[in-house]
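Forwarding these from the shared drive since the link keeps breaking.
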Amino acid sequence: MGDKTLHDSHARMPNDDFPPEQTRGRGESLGADRRTKEIREKILSSVQYIAAIPPAASKALDILMDPDVDLPKVIPCLEFDPGLTSNLLRLVNSPYFGFQRDITSVREACIRLGIRRVRDLVVASVVGPIVRQSIKGYSLESCALWEHSVATAIASEKLSGALGIQMPFATFTSAILHDVGKIVMGTFVEIGSGPIMRLSREQGLDFNKAEQQILGTDHAEVGAALLHEWSFPQIIVDVVRWHHDPEEAPEPSISLDIVHCADGIAIMSGIGIGQDGLRYRISDDVSKRLGVSTKIYERVIFETLTMMTKMKDIFSLTSI
């Protein structure tokens, strides 16, 4: 995909591109629906203009995303990239893992942590710079989206532990990536924020539902399209796509349920939320399906906040 970035010509629209809300006749409604479809197509086509993951990191992720990959294949792809090596060692020596002495090589890190955890850390080191930007459409200051992403990933792990569930493949990675669509949607939401917020408030809709009605899509669908563009595994694409609407997913998924609840926990913790943050609800059905009680939610919120404080310097978190 090269090193393209999101150009203004593809990201910006005049205000009159937005369909009028609610009070319109049949002819006006058809015209508004057509404009909404055009907006949707413009947004989804914008994913191709987001900078690609660096080639070395992309190659490493291709290998790491194979559930059956073994260490002899993983170690060389990390050792020959100085950026990946330094980021991995910085993260593995953080308080999060609590090793008694410093780990000084990629080989030792892979042996100590295992491939699953190494994959999680590589994704975090690669995605971090992309999602650290401020996103005005969601009123997210610089690093706020990154902080929320990290909090959701930690909450997914803490929630799994509290429930006695072994996290399925790539759950932590899906949690890190769940809101990546906001980097594409930001400009569109900024222009349409008035109608979106008004619709959300007046009809009691979750923010993403209001996004869908005004823009024809939401950050979850756009995030899934972006990850598909980046060739991430379908299991991760699906979690990102349905993380606000797990009941609408084509198939049930423990990973999806965990990330959905973990996202809500990060929001309740007040970490990295923007103007949309207080307009989401955790599904009662998902909470019941997982067996998450109020007491468990309270425990995981506390554990997530505690761990985020410890991880502040490691993940370059600014407001924890």
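-- next protein --
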Amino acid sequence: MTLSSVLPLAALLAAFFFTQPVSATNIKLASWNMEWLGSGNKPQRGELDYQKLREYALKLDADIVALQEVSSISSLRLVFGQDYRFELSERNHDQKTGFAIRNGIEYRRMPDYAELDWRGNQMLRYGTDISIASNKSGALRILNVHLKSGCFSNSHSNKSCKTLKPQVAQLANWMLLRDRNKEAFIVIGDFNRRLKEKNDYVMSALKAALPSLHSVGHNNASGCLVKKGEGVKAYRSFIDHILVNEAILPNVDEESFIHHAFAKNDVIERELTDHCPIRVTLKNQ
């Protein structure tokens, strides 16, 4: 595991606050499932598809993007260009989690949270973990996750739910350790779960472990269109989420939460992604 930056805290803070072009006070944090980006699996993307993804990345205009389903850094450069540095998990699989981090933001790469792959056979996706400087708490941990698919709500009871349950327990362990150490943290990514639905038992389990845990944003995902056959479909609620603890909550601008929808014609004509990015602003970082 490599570290992008290993600096004394004072130097880290100085580099973070005074390096352009990133704002000295606000950080725009996003999550985007890239749907097998750079993989030999579907969708097969050509130059025009990457060009359109690049346009949406520019519109997203995030300083840090938590990424899911990415195969390679070279494919990320086709989308985000040279203005970002990239980190990917060490899982030996085409579906990796990772980050795109705008140049000028100093960060430290932490070890992958491989405990989410609780069987230890690399069949489940690792969490990617970074730490950035924070004006609020000295450091902010950001864990990017992509949990087991197929157990989207309380109405589901299947093998995927049995796989998800230990992942939720491992995620709760990571959160509790950060909170007990008085560390500010954000868990962001594709939870493959409608956490904002009433009495969702996964969110209830996480909040039972850490009652102060807060889910950022609203639950109206109806503007997100994705490809379905020759047409499009619209999602009704989010499975991508941003969870924060009490230490960083005052710095979260809830009103800034948005999901970046794709134009219908772009969805039909181009191979984009089967998730729309979500983004929030962290204030006074």
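The CA atoms of residues 28 and 100 lie 12 Å apart. The radius of gyration is 18 Å.

- D.
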